[in-house]
Amino acid sequence: MNTATLGQRWRDSLVPRRLPQHLPREARDTLFHIAVIAWAILPHLLHLPLWCSVMAGAVLLWRARLAWTGASLPSRWLVSALLAVATGLTLWGERALLGKEAGVTMLVVLLTLKTLELRARRDALVVFFLGFFLVLTHFLYSQSLGTGLWMLVAVWGLLTALVLAHMPVGKPPLKAAGAVAAKAALLGVPLMAVLFVLFPRIGPLWGLPQDAVGRTGLSGSLRMGGVAEIANDDSIAMRVRFFGTPPAPQQMYFRGPVLSTFDGREWTRLQPTFPAALRPRADVQLIGAPLRYEMTIEPSRLPLLPLLELTPDRPDAAPQVPGWMLTLRPDVQWQVDRPISDRLRVTASAWLQHRHGPREDIVGLRDLVELPPGFNPRTLQWAADLRARPDLADADPRRLARAVLQHIGSGGFTYTLEPGTYGRDAVDEFWFDRQLGFCEHFAASFVVVMRAMDVPARIVTGYQGTDPKPQDGYWIVRQSNAHAWAEYWQPGEGWVRVDPTAAVAPDRVQVGRSLQPAPGLMAGAMQSFNPELAAQLRAQWEAVNNRWNQWVLSYSRQQQFNLLEKLGVQRPSWQDLATTLIGLLCTASLAGAAWAWWDRRRQDPWQRLQRRVQARLQALGVDVQAHHAPRERAARLRAKLGPAGEAAAAQLERLDALRYGAPATAASRWAGHRNWWREFRQQLPG
Prior knowledge:
Elements: H1 3-14, H2 25-41, H3 50-69, H4 76-94, H5 100-114, H6 121-137, H7 145-165, H8 174-187, H9 189-198, H10 226-231, E1 236-243, E2 253-259, E3 261-262, E4 267-268, E5 285-287, E6 291-297, E7 304-305, E8 307-308, E9 326-328, E10 334-336, E11 344-350, E12 353-355, H11 377-387, H12 397-410, E13 414-415, H13 426-434, E14 436-437, H14 439-452, E15 457-464, E16 475-478, E17 482-490, E18 494-498, H15 501-504, H16 506-510, H17 521-529, H18 531-553, H19 557-566, H20 574-603, H21 605-619, H22 630-641, H23 646-660, H24 666-683
Helix pairs in contact: 2-3, 2-7, 3-5, 4-5, 5-6, 6-7, 7-8, 9-20, 11-14, 12-14, 17-18, 22-23, 23-24
């Protein structure tokens, strides 16, 4: 065999042997089904182990090739061996076969391997319903609008495949099957809406206790660079709507974890060394008028509410979240009884002017001047020298704080999102050597210096500022708005908030403008092409997503009761809700049964016409049966009645042509049948 022949065979192998439109129906339907399964699996690639993703893709490609070439399916022994390997890998990776991660992994494996056994309709039905179950599992990870739209396409594809499986005759086009599937789905929309509105809200439908673990957001501790890592995340942390004049950006401080204990490397919550009676308390004093606001908080990994400073524990102001236990800590941080694994909507009131903390010196404040020995010796010495200056020898904490802030503002410090990694004595290195830092570097160094001068101080983390413009009436607070500031104790006033970052980067606080991380490839290309368009598209999408969150995901039990009140139910309860739901479902069932009965009669006029013709002919003594076609009945009519039945027989032959002749539209054919019956009765003898 020469080289030219080998080259020609190689080129022929690259060309598909059959075009899609020339494939047998079974192969075409199988390829469509595999494409739908791949679409349903695709979002799970973010959560599946690598081996499962590779295995699922390889099996689906293998099955598609078998369908395209018409080759035989693999043996059951091979499929069983692949299942055993997948089970072992799941046990090795997840340490279990039960639970969310292991369960989803095994579901994907079973679904893809089952495609290698598509030998009968029964096998196809198993794959269909495994696919529907796989669609549900996506909502264990995300209930966003994007996930809902993606799964809507997956459901439509599965319904189309199911319709194809019940069309055994001919080769119906995918377009026709897709139209039937879409119509069936639309018929179920009213029932779906009723169930959504009235089905009891018992709790988080899709959330699991461990879902909040690993989410980005604030942490219960702080190391140098921790907040900068959060600032690289531009996702939404919460949305805020104000019932009144929105506060200025420099007033938008959303209080998160308060960190008071320092071991030289990490800041954590206060670990008191004094009895509870001697520790600092909240002692909140409110000044001026309150500001009412509503927040929609995204899931986080901490059991706290980052509320606007300062939201007090008062019946007319405190946040109320049904099913949650909320506690205001002595450091005026709102604590909840579990991590926020689901989106929460909170309404509360805040006083932007306030005081909190003890007014007089108490022994418990000594915990907030403690510093670990052996760390940051240069900073401690610098603080001692500052305190010994003649003009500050008898200064109060406020004057000392101003002196430290003045040093930050004029000392050559740079505010940056990428300060690099600091070593053991991080404050020394930041204060004297590199002078590059994000908000936590400034806040931590300020607190260390103040404590070194025997002034109680602590770090507060949370969020500061919002997007420049509201969306749909809501101000957007992003993870990139994560911030760290400080508080020091002033005799006669209590805790005083101070933001050392403002000394070197005033726009960060006064305008609420955080540093932005470098955009990704697609976002960078869009911004370089048209930055205004990119910002507008993102704002529109987030506004639509917010409406989805507010109207769908945040639909609550209280809103169900409010709906019943509007319908005239006084003091609605669970019993009223259940009664209304059951009544509507029963009414819908009866209406559906009536419609099915009517539709059956409407959809099959040919059978009714055939029965009426049979009854008339039998009344004349003509021996005709239900299975006889109109042409056969015409012959029997002539044989029985002779010339007297010729006109009616001709009408029967005309009916045969209407039924089995050239194609016609359903409307024109039925109109011909209706006119035919009137003429046929006139032609019958007697």
